[in-house]
Design a protein that fits this description.
The protein contains 6 helices and no strands. The chain is mainly alpha-helical and 173 residues long. The chain has one domain: Ferritin (Up-down Bundle).
Length: 173
């Protein structure tokens, strides 16, 4: 049997090693990708926007006069924030945003429908908006690019809603 030149054997070894490396990379790539690092922050902001919108809607139903219009506008604005956050989550993950967070308590909604709760007021909405603005401000500081701008805009809108639209001078409290 004639002996092969060493370069042919090396080529076969290198070709085989390359094929195994490609196969290994392909196998790893087929596994589920880890969630993007900003996903939890955006999901939290989404949950807050949805909750604030529901709260403002409920407070508007229990209010009278100009407060109804202001609270309804705030509910619509927070709903728009939820939509923008949902779209960003869809863009970054390729999947629709969850309808509720995994941390939401399932008994909260059933308890709310079985017994009437306290009458919600503009003060309740102010507290929720203040907490949402603080959370969005802190989160925006940790993000970059569009997501930082989105959370910064949400923080500014929440702050304006509770300091301007829901002020005692406007007669909404």
């Amino acid at each position: 049997m004639p002996s092969r030149p060493p370069t042919v054997s090396r080529r076969r070894v290198l070709t085989g090693a390359t094929a195994l490396a490609v196969l290994g990379v392909t196998t790893v790539a087929c596994g589920p990708a880890p969630p993007p690092p900003d996903l939890d922050d955006l999901t939290t902001a989404l949950d807050r926007a949805r909750a604030d919108s529901r709260l403002a809607t409920d407070a508007a139903a229990a209010s009278r006069g100009s407060a109804v219009d202001v609270l309804t506008a705030i509910a619509a604005e927070r709903s728009a924030h939820a939509e923008a956050l949902s779209e960003e989550i869809l863009r970054m993950t390729g999947h629709a945003a969850p309808t509720t967070s995994a941390t939401a308590s399932p008994t909260t909604s059933s308890a709310a429908t079985s017994a009437p709760g306290p009458v919600l007021t503009a003060d309740d909405v102010i507290g929720a908006l203040r907490a949402s603005a603080d959370s969005a401000t802190q989160t925006a500081a940790t993000l970059t690019g569009y997501r930082a701008g989105l959370l910064g805009s949400i923080a500014a809108a929440c702050t304006a809603a509770y300091t301007v639209a829901l002020t005692p001078a406007a007669g909404v409290r």
